[in-house]
Every structure is written in C-alpha cells, then in structure tokens.
Amino acid sequence: MTGQTVLEQLRQMTIVVADTGDLSAIEQFRPRDATTNPSLITAAAALPATQPLIARAVADVLARYSQQPNVLEKQSVQKQLSEKQPAVEAVIDLLTVRLGISILELVEGRVSTEVDASLSFDTEATLAKARELIQSYQQAGIDTRRVLIKIASTWQGIQAARQLEAEGIACNLTLLFGLHQASACAEAGVTLISPFVGRILDWQKKNENRQEIPIDEDDGVQSVKRIYHYYKQHGYRTEIMGASFRSAEQIMALAGCDLLTIAPALLKELQEKQEPLTRQLSPDAISNELEKSILTQTQFDAWHQADRMSHELLDAGIKGFIKAREQLAETLLRQFPELKAE
Questions:
Q1: Which domains does the chain have, with CATH numbers?
Q2: Over the stretch 250-273, which tens digit does the pLDDT of each residue have?
Q3: Which of 118, 270, 285, 312 is most open to solvent, judged by the fewest CB atoms within 10 Å of its CB?
Q4: Structure pTM?
C-alpha cells in the first residue's frame, strides 16, 4: 500500500460513488457510479455548465405542451400534485433524467435518479413516477440496467420498490436510518440501500449535547456496520452504500462496505491523504448476533415510532428534499415565467 493515497486504497476495497450532480467533479474523480438527490440537483442547476441542459429541457417541455395543451394535467401522477405547476414539474423530471444521462457518459456504472419526495407515502404514485422516469431513459436510448430509481425508505416506498424490482427496475432506497428499514428493504429484494451516516451523527451530537464524538462511538458508523453484518449474516443480496458523510474518518471507518457515496470535497481529501488504510468490513469477518426480522407493516410502523432518531430523521429528510425541489421550481419560474400555468 506504500505510496498509495487513501482514495486509491479505498477503491480496492469498496466501490466509490460520487455524491454530486456536478459534472466537472464527476469527470475529475471518475467514480464507478454517481448518485444525486433533490438538493444536489438544485445545486447543480445553479452551475453555469448545467444551464444548457435547463434551457433545452424548458424548450422541449414547452414544445410538447403547446402541441398537446392538456397532456401534463392528464398524467396520473400530476393529479396527485394538482397544487403544483405542471410544466415546471415536467421540466424538473426531464432535467433530472438528462443530468443522469450526462453523468452516465462520465461513469462506467450506474446513476441514481430520485422520485419526487412528496410521493414518499403513496405507493401507487411512486410506482407511476418511477415508471415515467425509466421510460424517459428508455426513450433516450439508455440501458436502464444502469439506472437506479431512488425512493425514500418509508413503508410505502419500500412496497413500491418491491413491485419495481419485480418489473426489472432496480431501486436505491434512501433516507435510511434504522435496522427496521434495512430489514424491510432486504425482504423486498431492493438492489441497494443508502444508510445516512452523517445525519445520524448530527442527531446524536444534538441529542447527547456533545460537540465531538470519537469514531468508535459514532452511531452513524455503527449503524452501517450493524446493517452490513445483518445482511451478510442472513445472505441478503441487497447492496449497502454508506452515504451522507461528515468526515474522511467516517469513510475510512467503513472501508470494505459494498459501496460508499462521497461528496467531492471529501473525495479530494481522501485523494490527498497518504496514510495506510485498514479494511474494516468484510463478508469473511461478520458478527452472527442479529436475529432475522421479517416485518409486517404494523410491526414496521411500531418499530419506526419507537425509534425516535429514525422517525425524526426520515421525516426531516423528506421535508428537506421536498423543499429543495420547491426551491428549484421557484428558480425555474423566475427564470422562465412562460412555464407558469394560466
């Protein structure tokens, strides 16, 4: 390992994913996969390099809308979102897919594309929107095996993912904070989960009134380790992708996890570190202490209500993603007032 950066060593143990919609950062670090969320899409939309994508998406939606004035209102999902501006919502979906296509031109693997978080508690609406997104990729000639549909880890979202996986549509279940969510996802046969490390640490610091928490006491890191051992112990195929990191130390503490999605600033820090990296997780060295749980909705809901951290963070995460999408919609309406419904 001498002479290798921490990032180079990490790539030998774990699939590195870029947690960004910034195409220049993806091009710089060349991860195998890339993942985005509404906050990252909103941030990417503010970058100069993304402006041509936005302009084309707006032009294409307006052209489609002018040819078929009622097409957007008639969409089944749009009926669920009647209070929203339908043309703007169509632009956001199209922009999200086209940004995903641009990312796929830079990576060898997959991109995660997120369903509107406002649908997180509606299984049927989530299914409809996921199918629309996949259809958009198909129409662009993309091999949809390279696309993961990203859905919040609510009970309703997990059931939507179960159906989508049965249809051959791979899913990434996000905003995951507890073992009950991870267990339900594995039983649903989802392709990948994204447990959030940093947000758990943030909650722990606030709840325990501590400014600094040693890495071996970090509940976010321990949560991913527990899920990893649970999955490997019981032979689940669902991949685990640690997400939402606050430090390079958190990432290094999970070396060996199936995948880790990392923001550009932390990728840069890992690229500049030269210290040895020790593998922390391996399917050959797992704990066998976690009993298998196959949960009904009633059991899931009871566990979720009892787990205050997971309950609060899931709700806050959904609200945050909804807010980010609303902010993007407001920006688009200011920039392109012709998108406003009459």
A1: 6-339 (3.20.20.70)
A2: 999 999 999 999 999 999 999 999
A3: 285
A4: 0.92
